[in-house]
From TrEMBL:
InterPro entries named in the record: PA_dom_sf, PA_domain, Peptidase_M28, Peptidase_M28B
Name the record gives this protein: PA domain-containing protein
Species of provenance: Tepidanaerobacter syntrophicus
Domain (Peptidase M28) ranges: 233-423
Domain PA: 102-199
The organism's taxonomic lineage, starting at the top: Bacteria, Bacillati, Bacillota, Clostridia, Thermosediminibacterales
Coiled-coil boundaries: none
Length: 592
């Protein structure tokens, strides 16, 4: 275990983490982006960074934002009933008297749920879940012609004590929109209701009687100046390189486990690490993003756009801290970029002596850095499968995004474990001479998916050469891993170490966007975008092409798109091979 971690571990305190979380909650409970408390919270966090000895600032940025105003929901057929609701944000406001629409129950609200259902001009009832995430449910609903969406919260059936309404945003477009994506913001009205109200409406829809509802919803849509704090802890050997430790500061009121506890974890880590700054080799940037919940990762996306060069050249990785210390959580769960999965798994086992199954990271939360190719890690104590099943998918607790996300939803033992694991990962990452990226898992994953795609793809799209080059890359990775072992004892300032670390970053930058997103490095897929969940999203269009009539206009248009996507993937892979050839040659020829 890294010596720095052993030094700070004894001073990592769940009580201190709780104290910071409590202060945020009690002094700035309404941290919804643009409503005032979010700015006060950002200024307070920045002042704490400064107090700890970090350089700090409050970043002001402009975001296409939304705030809730009011809503009402009434059943008007086959019976009369008023249902409590909250307005979803980033929706089309209705006139005050509302709109009368037929209601259709859709379950999760994924594409498959729309089969043989006509929702044009109607409202859809969907259940809150991450299959897909709520913004994607809204995008699909709008695409299918629905004019309104009712979001039924998760929770345990027939449990009145845990039956509350959650706050939701339906923007879908990731970060600030562009001329191309502005039109993709769902033109749909939306309200949120409790789990029991959702069950009532679901049963009504299943009764084979026509269900009519009146939906009234008002929210703002505006360009707002938002604030977010950042603290810089400078390293001593290679200070230009940095690890990004981040989580969101905006929250639905009162937002304790989403995300006052995460902010408290960031503050606690910054405080303790600052006491040992002289032993830290690389820099650490601590950031609490704004615009996460409603503006869909606006703050982190803005940061990518406006700090592109620094991130591209010097960001060695990121650890996202969200929803730490949750009540009822029983097991540590972690997702990570494939190239750091083994690194993270080994550290977690050292800290808690448990063999955790680290899963591959997909783009969610504030993973605005995913496409740029910044390796990232997300971990926290999580709920059991039994709990999630019993509460109909509440993997962040039945209270998530409700007024009941208060201080009694914190478990200090879980908070301590989250603190210690995060600290161990950070210390090992910033003080490693050779960066921990290992692309063997990445290559094996790509190879498996390519083999499956080739069997299903339209034969007109040439993919076998890409598979050949992935296997060639695997050979280079074996050489790189052997060089890493020989260089581990050298300092990060050593020229060979600097070369191999630069190569590792180049590989992350080249491979991630091409094989795991549906756009290039400079754009952002929309939130939980369905095409981006396919195996090798850009190449999967060749599989979809095989299911089209080759004489149709649809085929001919998609064929051109599929060819270009194939070329994007092939070019990124060939660039990765060139980097391997060049850097390994330089490393082998360098004379110490």
């Amino acid at each position: 275990m890294e010596k720095l971690y052993e030094e700070i571990r004894k001073d990592l305190s769940a009580d201190k983490n709780y104290e910071y979380s409590e202060w945020l909650t009690e002094h700035y409970p309404r941290r919804i982006s643009g409503m005032g408390d979010d700015r006060k919270a950002a200024e307070w966090v920045a002042s704490k960074f400064k107090e700890f000895g970090l350089e700090s600032e409050v970043i002001n940025f402009e975001a296409y934002n939304s705030n809730p105003v009011s809503s009402s929901l009434k059943v008007i057929q086959p019976e009369l009933k008023e249902i409590d609701s909250l307005p979803c944000c980033h929706v089309e406001s209705t006139r005050k008297e509302g709109i009368n629409v037929e209601l259709v129950y859709l379950g999760a609200g994924d594409y498959d749920d729309y089969m043989e259902k006509d929702v044009k001009g109607k409202a859809v009832l969907v259940e809150v879940s991450y299959s897909p995430a709520t913004p994607e449910k809204a995008r699909i609903a709008a695409e299918k012609g629905a004019v309104a969406m009712i979001c039924a919260n998760w929770g345990e059936d027939e449990n009145e004590e845990e039956d509350y309404i959650c706050g939701r945003g339906l923007k879908s477009v990731w970060g600030n929109p562009t001329p191309e994506t502005f039109k993709d913001i769902p033109k749909i009205s939306g309200v949120s209701i409790s789990h029991s109200a959702g069950t009532y409406l679901k049963n009504l829809c299943k009764s084979e009687k026509k269900v009519l509802v009146n939906i009234s919803v008002q929210c703002t849509r505006s360009w707002d100046i938002l604030a977010m704090p950042i603290g810089y802890l400078r390293g001593n050997e290679v200070p230009e390189e940095f690890l990004l430790v981040n989580g969101h500061i905006d929250a639905w009121e009162p937002g304790v486990t989403c995300n006052a506890t995460g902010n408290g974890t960031i503050l606690t880590l910054a405080e303790q690490l600052a006491k040992h700054q002289d032993k830290i080799k690389r820099s650490i940037y601590f950031v609490c993003w704004n615009g996460h919940e409603i503006a869909e990762s606006a703050g982190s996306t803005w940061y990518v756009d406006h700090h592109w060069d620094e991130l591209d050249e010097n960001c060695i990785g990121g650890i996202n801290i969200d929803s730490t210390g949750m009540l009822h959580a029983v097991q540590y769960e972690c997702t990570a970029s494939r190239e750091v999965m083994k690194f993270v798994k080994d550290i977690i086992k050292e800290v808690v002596n448990e063999d955790i199954n680290v899963l591959p990271l997909n783009k969610f939360g504030d993973q605005s850095f995913f496409g740029i190719g910044v390796p990232s890690i997300v971990g926290r104590m999580g709920m059991s499968e039994e709990y999630i099943k019993r509460t109909n998918g509440a993997n962040l607790g039945w209270w998530n995004h409700t007024i009941k996300d208060d201080l009694n939803k914190v478990d200090k033992n879980n908070l301590q474990k989250d603190l210690e694991i995060s600290a161990a990962i950070i210390c090992s990452y910033v003080n490693a001479s050779v960066l921990p990226q290992d692309f063997l898992i990445t290559c094996e994953d790509i190879e498996t998916k390519l083999t499956e795609i080739i069997d299903k793809a339209d034969p007109k799209i040439e993919i076998k050469s890409i598979l050949y080059n992935v296997r060639k890359l695997k050979g280079y990775i074996a050489i790189i891993n052997s060089r890493k072992i020989s260089l581990n004892s050298k300092p990060p300032t050593d020229n060979k170490v600097k070369l191999i670390n630069e190569l590792l970053l180049k590989l992350s930058r080249s491979l991630t966007w091409a094989f795991y997103t549906y756009c290039d490095r400079f754009e952002q897929n929309s939130y939980a975008y369905t095409p981006a969940t396919k195996p090798i999203p850009l190449l999967y269009s060749a599989v979809e092409l095989a299911n089209m009539d080759p004489t149709s206009l649809e085929y001919k248009l998609h064929y051109t798109s599929a060819v270009r996507n194939r070329n994007r993937v092939s070019t990124a892979l060939r660039e990765a091979l060139k980097y391997c050839e060049l850097y390994l040659t330089l490393i082998d020829q360098w004379i110490d």
